[in-house]
């Protein structure tokens, strides 16, 4: 205590004065902390290294599993693309076959078109012939009545 200060009396303490909060018993103060023995430090270090090794092993295992999953996905994607390539090759082959067949049918299709035009012309000629024959019949009947 300072020589000029008098010890505090309870009578001088005001009831509204705030006191520092009580410290949590789990929190050690600087005066209470003691340095652990060297054997304890070694044990703690060994425990820390073991736990760190377990943690890193888990992390590496998870990463390895992720890469295996990606590898499997890539293999499946590759197989799917191979199937799609086969389908595309088959479609291309079928289209070539169809084009060749169409080219082979083209002369026949042209002949059908030509025959269709000729039939239409023949039909028109038949109508004209029919009309002409009706006129002739009418003239014959007119002449026959005389």
From TrEMBL:
<dbReference type="GO" id="GO:0031083">
    <property type="term" value="C:BLOC-1 complex"/>
</dbReference>
<protein>
    <submittedName>
        <fullName>Biogenesis of lysosomal organelles complex 1 subunit 2</fullName>
    </submittedName>
</protein>
<dbReference type="Pfam" id="PF10046">
    <property type="entry name" value="BLOC1_2"/>
</dbReference>
<dbReference type="GO" id="GO:0032418">
    <property type="term" value="P:lysosome localization"/>
</dbReference>
<dbReference type="GO" id="GO:0016197">
    <property type="term" value="P:endosomal transport"/>
</dbReference>
<feature type="region of interest" description="Disordered">
    <location>
        <begin position="1"/>
        <end position="36"/>
    </location>
</feature>
<dbReference type="GO" id="GO:0000930">
    <property type="term" value="C:gamma-tubulin complex"/>
</dbReference>
<comment type="similarity">
    <text>Belongs to the BLOC1S2 family.</text>
</comment>
<dbReference type="GO" id="GO:0043015">
    <property type="term" value="F:gamma-tubulin binding"/>
</dbReference>
<feature type="compositionally biased region" description="Basic residues">
    <location>
        <begin position="1"/>
        <end position="12"/>
    </location>
</feature>
<dbReference type="GO" id="GO:0099078">
    <property type="term" value="C:BORC complex"/>
</dbReference>
<dbReference type="InterPro" id="IPR019269">
    <property type="entry name" value="BLOC1_su2"/>
</dbReference>
